[in-house]
Amino acid sequence: MSINKVGLSITETSGKKSLSIYIHIPFCGSKCAYCSFVSVVGSPEDKKRYFAALLTEISIQSKKYREFYSVSSIYIGGGTPSCMDYYLIRDLLSNIYKNFAVKNSAEITIELNPNTVDKTKIREYILSGVNRFSIGLQSTSSKILKAMGRTHTVEDYEELVGIIKDYGIKNISTDIIIGYPGQKLVDVKDTIDYLISLEIPHISVYMLSVEEGTRLKKLVDNGSVGLPDEDLVIQMYNEVYDRLSDEGYTRYEFSNFSLPTFESFHNRVYWNRKDYLGMGLAAHSYIDGTRFANTENIIEYARELETNKTLPVSMSKTLSDDEKKEEMIMLSLRTKDGFDINEYKRLFNENFLAKKKEKLTMLITEGYMLLTPENRLVCTDKGFLVLNRIVLDLID
Ligand code: SF4
């Protein structure tokens, strides 16, 4: 089954800078045990009020950026965007198309949780221009899903994948978590094998990080659950890497694996420090060397936009050259393309190889890094396992 987008006027543009848009939808059906994202359950009135404020923010921001930028990707994340009524997402996207110059070729992603979507919603998303779906599965173990507080089953996930594929969309990403309390190596193997069997072309693999303020943090602190030891988590990661590599997936970033042509354009914008505009509660932006973020307080967010028609920005910082250099090292070394020495020279007029000669010689000699013929520094498999240490060494 395939359908055509209707009712949208998407402009192809030229001569403008590229912009990516992130939209945060801060609502979920319930709160997962490990979750520290800015998300609430929210009433239908809260959601309507939030969307009205969000549309006001889009209109204000478009006046600043529309003239200079065309939009290459849109990512609707959360929270759980798919727990919203579909017409709110449709209105959101048509509002973006009206207010910004969005390229015909733009990658448009929406995050889904399996038991929050049906055929109608998927169809409406596609008609609204969505061409990539990112699904939170996390694990195929029902025991682990329960411990995480996830409310869906593996069957729900499989049904959703089937619906999306029936509409002819192959561009599906799936998130999984490794290192969860109680998770065994075999659980991770089963999850990866399952995703391979469903031919999911993009898989994001996140190592659990226990965050302040979460239910999981309390359980760990009071000894109710224990975290798996570091060696086991590394074994899990290696298992994922080996299995996916065998099946033709590329690790194009430390946590992201894809089959050829399925790398996420939007994700690469973050790692390559390109311009992106985040709108919605707690959304972060990076434009022309300045990072800024919206308030995390949902009442304040709505009030600022409703009453004052002002942007609810709570933080703004123009990065110094030193901060830009640190970010470049930190973000680029996570990627398969690595750190571009020529670009560093162009941006900062410094020779990175000469500046870090001793450390780089040691890292390359000991097999943690490679210098490619294109003058890029790339972590080896061995290097990826001690990535944080390498980054610290090179930032120092
Ligand atoms: S669905 Fe995602 S955003 Fe919502 S509570 Fe769970 S982890 Fe957090």
How would you sum up this structure, described in words?
Residues 4-12 have low confidence and may be disordered. The longest helix is centred in the N-terminal third of the chain and has 22 residues, at 44-65. The chain has 2 domains: 17-271, Aldolase class I (TIM Barrel); 338-395, no CATH class. The relative contact order is 0.11. With 396 residues, the protein is α/β, with parallel strands linked by helices. The protein has helices at 44-65, 86-99, 119-127, 142-148, 154-166, 185-197, 215-221, 230-246, 265-271, 298-308, 321-332, 341-348, 352-355, 357-365, 381-384, 387-395; strands spanning 17-25, 69-78, 101-112, 132-138, 172-178, 202-207, 250-253, 256-258, 276-280, 284-287, 290-294, 313-318, 339-340, 369-371, 376-379. The chain starts with 16 loop residues before the first strand and ends with a helix. It is built from 16 helices and 15 strands. Helices cover 42% and strands 22% of the residues. The strands form 3 sheets. It has a 9-stranded mixed β-sheet with strand order 7-8-6-5-4-3-2-1-9, sandwiched between helices. The structure holds iron/sulfur cluster. Iron/sulfur cluster binds at residues 28, 31-32, 35, 37, 39, 78-80, 113, 136.
